[in-house]
Structures are given as C-alpha cells and as structure tokens.
C-alpha cells in the first residue's frame, strides 16, 4: 500500500474513519450496500483493461465485483488504511493498487479511463477542495474517460458519519462539471440505510471532453 507523509488534519481524518470501520460491522454502516449497481454501466461501457479508480472506496463491493468481471487495472484510494487492508484481504492477492491518502492533499500519479466516487465528494465542504477535486478528476481522466459521481443531493442528510457534508443539486453539479465534462446522465437515487432511513443521492455520469 502506498502511504505518503501525513499532515495533522489528514491524520485526524484517517483516525476518524479507521475508528468508524473498526468499531462498526460493515453491514450497519449507513452507506452500506450489498452490491454496486454502477458495475453494470462500467462493464457495458469500458474494456476490462481500462484503468478504473474508486475514490474513497472504503469497504465498497465495487472493486471486488470488477475483479470478478476480470477487470485488470484497478485502484482504490481512501484515507482509511483499515478499510484498505480489509479490501486487500478480501481481494486475496488479486492485482489492485491500494493508495492511502487524503484526497485534499493527493494528486494522481497516472491517468485513468474511469473515475468512480460514491458518497465521498460530499465530505469536501470547502469550495476550494471541491474545485480542486473536479480539476483533479479532469486532469487524471483520459479524453472520453468516464466520471461517475454519487453525492448527497440538496435534499440529502446534513451530516454523515459524524461529519458535516456539502449537498449538491444536479444543476449545480452540471455547472461545476461543464468546463471539462459532458454530462451523459444524471438522476436522483434514494439510498435506504441499514436502519431504514432514506438518503437522497444525486448521480452524475459524465465524459471527459
Ligand atoms: C461514506 S464512505 C463511502 C465508502 C464507499 N465509497 C461506498 O460507497 O461504500 C466514505 C469513504 O470516503 C473515505 N474518505 C472520506 N474523506 C476522505 C478524504 N478526504 N480522502 C480520502 N478518503 C476519504 C472514508 O474513509 C470512507 O471510506
């Protein structure tokens, strides 16, 4: 696992998420889902050798579903080394690059053909971090590469996992992406949490210009 030197704020964030993952069963976490529906879009639209990155992958099933689909160039970045170690163990030695990093300090070292983020972008509450993130995705995606972004909508929760979040409407996200991306699909999804609550997500599917 790649581990850069950490700032204090990144260490605090890592501690927060490690604690969440270590002290709660995965199936009780509010963002838990058995499988990632986005895999259907990915398998239909990109080849199995396409470099795919899952941003803030945590314990998401996405990378494991893509391994099962025989994707060969997979990367997961997350601030929580605990989650990454769990993912690595579950992948049973299959070739995945696991990167421990705080997105706010991180710069991708290579290009990707598909960038996936479910429930991570909304933790960037500072406009500067949000703009940097979108610029970073644009820089790291090859022309015609795909961006899949699922984030709390304007009607979503105001906090998650004990942290404040920023909520975004589809219109706002469409504008934020306009300089570098063409939006090919956007929709609202209601995620039902393990305790039965409903969280509204805005999903953006876009292509790098
Ligand atoms: C709500 S969970 C979503 C996990 C996963 N994407 C899923 O759908 O199951 C948010 C994830 O983002 C990670 N995360 C939050 N802020 C981060 C940051 N600034 N840099 C890197 N990872 C971050 C957390 O460790 C956690 O795994």
Key attributes of the depicted protein:
209 residues; alpha/beta; Rossmann fold; two-stranded antiparallel ribbon; 6 helices; 30% helix; binds S-adenosylmethionine
How would you describe this structure to a colleague?
The chain has a seven-stranded mixed β-sheet with strand order 3-2-1-4-5-9-8, with helices on both faces. The protein has a two-stranded antiparallel sheet with strand order 6-7. The chain has one domain (8-208): Vaccinia Virus protein VP39 (Rossmann fold). The model has no long low-confidence stretch (mean pLDDT 97). The protein is globular. The protein is α/β, with parallel strands linked by helices and 209 residues long. The protein has six helices and nine strands. Bound molecules: S-adenosylmethionine. S-adenosylmethionine is lined by residues 13, 17, 31, 56-58, 60, 78-80, 83, 102-104, 118-120, 123.
Summarize the structure.
This protein has 209 residues and is α/β, with parallel strands linked by helices.
Estimate the strand proportion: 25-35%
Task: Name the CATH architecture.
Answer: 3-Layer(aba) Sandwich
Q: Tell me the name of the CATH homologous superfamily.
A: Vaccinia Virus protein VP39
Q: Could you say which structural class the secondary elements and strand pairing correspond to?
A: alpha/beta
Mean pLDDT: 97
Q: Describe the biggest sheet?
A: 7 strands, mixed
Distance between the termini: 32 Å
Biggest sheet: strand arrangement: 3-2-1-4-5-9-8
Low-pLDDT residue intervals, each spanning 5 or more residues: none
User: What is bound: which ligands?
Assistant: S-adenosylmethionine
Number of helices: 6
CATH topology: the name is Rossmann fold
How many structural domains? Answer: 1
SSE string, helix = H, strand = E?
A: HHEHEHEEHEEEHEE
Q: Specify the CATH class.
A: Alpha Beta
Number of strands: 9
């Amino acid at each position: 696992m790649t581990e850069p030197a950490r700032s204090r704020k990144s260490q605090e964030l890592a501690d927060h998420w490690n604690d969440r993952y270590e002290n709660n069963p995965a199936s009780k976490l509010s963002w838990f889902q058995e499988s990632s529906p986005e895999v259907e879009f990915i398998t239909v639209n990109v080849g199995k050798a396409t470099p795919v990155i899952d941003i803030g992958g945590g314990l998401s099933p996405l990378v494991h579903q893509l391994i099962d689909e025989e994707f060969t160039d997979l990367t997961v970045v997350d601030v929580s080394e605990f989650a990454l170690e769990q993912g690595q163990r579950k992948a049973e030695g299959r070739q995945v690059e696991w990167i421990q990093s705080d997105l706010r300090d991180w710069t991708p070292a290579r290009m990707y053909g598909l960038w996936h983020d479910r429930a991570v972008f909304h933790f960037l509450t500072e406009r500067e971090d949000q703009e940097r993130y979108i610029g970073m995705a644009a820089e790291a995606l090859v022309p015609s590469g795909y961006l899949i972004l699922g984030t709390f909508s304007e009607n979503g929760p105001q906090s998650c996992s004990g942290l404040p979040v920023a909520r975004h409407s589809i219109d706002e996200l469409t504008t934020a992406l306009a300089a570098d991306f063409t939006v090919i699909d956007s929709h609202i999804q209601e995620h039902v949490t393990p305790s039965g609550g409903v969280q509204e997500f805005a999903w953006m599917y876009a292509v790098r210009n």
